[in-house]
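Please check this protein record:
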Amino acid sequence: MDEIIMENMAFHGYHGVLKEEKVLGQRFYVDAKLYLDLKKAGESDNLNDTVSYAEVYKIIEHIMTKEKFELLEALAHKICNEILLYYKNIETVVLKVKKPSAPVVGNFDYFAVKIKRSRRDYE
């Protein structure tokens, strides 16, 4: 299976359990890997035979900036569901949501959730 890779997309969102996170928000980073057959697109050089990066970005951006979730798990699940609903040619989505300013005392780069959802999970 071929891959389309979208990494380190940055968004300001209002996701988290704490009140401050819901009011002030914070920066999140998203990595997405989309698994699909790209042979036809490679042969045709036609956007209709692949996935529009811009459209996938818009789906992710909308959910990250306009919706609110307490858990990264629920946020990532929603993004995967929407991508699979919109693009029937995508077989699997692997998504990582990173939260570099998580309200945890300690030294760290980020906390993250990484999930994998496949079309067959919904059949």
The chain has one domain: 2-122.
